[in-house]
From TrEMBL:
One of the Pfam families matching this protein, by short name: Caroten_synth
Membrane-traversing stretches: 12-31, 37-57, 69-88, 100-119, 126-146, 166-187, 236-255, 322-340
Lineage: Bacteria, Thermotogati, Deinococcota, Deinococci, Deinococcales
Name of protein: Carotenoid biosynthesis protein
Keyword Membrane: yes
Alphabetically ordered keywords of this record: Membrane, Transmembrane, Transmembrane helix
InterPro entries (alphabetical): CruF-like (IPR007354)
Amino acid sequence: MRVSLSPTVWRAGLAFAALGVAFLGALLVMGRNPVGWVLIALGLPLSGVLALAGDALGPEFPEVLGERLAGLLAATRPWMALVALYVALKIPVPLWPEGFPVLGLASTAALCAAALAFVWERAGWLRAALMLVVSFGVGLGVELLGSRTGIPFGDYTYAGAPAPTLLTVPLIVPLGWFALTLTATSLSRGRPWLAGALMMLWDVGLEPLMTAQGYWTWTDPLPLWAGAPVQNFLGWWAVGWGLSWVFTGLAPGLFGRAGAGWALPGWLERVDGNVQASRVPSLSLLPGARRAGEGLDFRVVYATEAFFLPGGLVLVGRYAEAAVTLAAMGLGLGLARALRPGRRAVARAR
């Protein structure tokens, strides 16, 4: 009996096979075999090509590939492309471990730019700018206060942190507060208390990884996890709650909440009245499929980090911490799913 595979299965199977070639190359590179770079250079782009048109191998392949690539580019919003860049910048870390500070900053900057583009597109540039300024300022402020006084996180120092720094705080930190808060607020559907909890669970993995990379050093006398005390996690919850409350107040509809949001003062109201948020088209790698991008928002970043953050801990030899991080972020995803608003609440918000 002949088994007929669907075009989707063909594309997925061939794309994963090409990724297998790239993975083999990564293993060779880690074993100091230069041939691995050739396999990586071939496997990664080939996996993308086959994911788009692997079911059309033959004379029509170039034409089908061109049409589908054009359709994909037309449907991809800027924030989606920046999230893809953020993920892509994580891939070389195992091959260039000493380049973690460079890749980490570039990846965080790409995620921050993606967050800015996402809010800009759906709530206007003014609210996007306000969220960025508030979260960057608060993030930098609490880190300066915390590293000097121990409030609100506990006793730690940024001495020896990789450059670039701003007032001794690594630039990656205040940039991260913006992207993390937007991600957690999106996943929590605009409930600040839950967003703070999601960020606290995220920090379970950040503490062992970032201390291993030398971004900060704990000196607290009452450590609980990776040198951090209970106070640190309560501080993360509190700061995350506060920033998420601001984000939700500025643009409740962005997070599925009812209401028009806070009234902006005077001239800001007039500027905001001229802002027209663009419509978000769908993203689909499967031509002819139902709009796969429908409902896609910044929540995807939390799930992505739930994969990459434990993976990063494995690479630096922190296997127990990796397992705990995976469990913590899995708990966060489970909480967000279990506590998501009912359909009626979502419909009212829309």
